[in-house]
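Note to self: keep these together.
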Amino acid sequence: MSHTAHIRSHRKPRSRTASTIAMRAGVAGGILSTVAVAGASAAANAAEPVTQTLELPTLTADLSAQVAQSAEATQLAAANYQLQAERDAAAAAAAKEAAKDLAAAKKAEARKKAAEEARQAAAERAARDSQRTTLAAAADTGSGSVSTSTSTSASTATGSAAAVIDFVRAQVGDAYVSGGTGPNSWDCSGLVQAAFRQVGIDLPRVSQDQSTAGTQVSLDNLQPGDILYWGGAGSAYHVAVYVGGGMFVGAQNPSTGVVEKPLSYDPPSGAVRVL
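Structure:
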């Protein structure tokens, strides 16, 4: 324990003097007055509206130039878009017009081709009718030699000619089919080619070439086994085999098939001999 623990303090108790108290009271009063004045000022400020003024930036010459350039660029872009749209529309219209012109040209070409084919068919029919008339007149007057010479030849056909004739006659009644080469359906050149193949003769496949495959012979001097053709030599559209006696065998058309008919039924234009 400290050696001073039980020693009384010699300090005298403080006594509040009147001046001290008065000073503290004055300070407190000043504070309260300040608070009151501040409150009144805040209330007055709260009652009055506050107005704030904003200053806009001044439009300078540089800013005006930038605005003008932006507007000009916008107008230029709009003009370019309009021009491109007009060009696209013009291109589409031109393409449509070209398509119409092409279609019209194709139609005109098709009509021209059809007319040419019709004229060619008419010319071929006229030639066949003329030949038929000539043969009929010759038969009536007895001046023609087709029936006379062929009837004699029919009875004397032998060898390869007989084999060819036997083959084509065996196919009478078969169907006609374009491109047919047998054994039960034929077209005209397919039948002729197959008949001559029986005797070791390899003929061309189509009638145009078969019409020039041998030696040209007169229709007044036909022999059994001769190849008859319709149309021009080298441009024939049909062929058949002369079997003698004024008769021929051929694959005529889809309606008749393979038939044996007299020459007057469909007079040929010419003939070639390969045997």
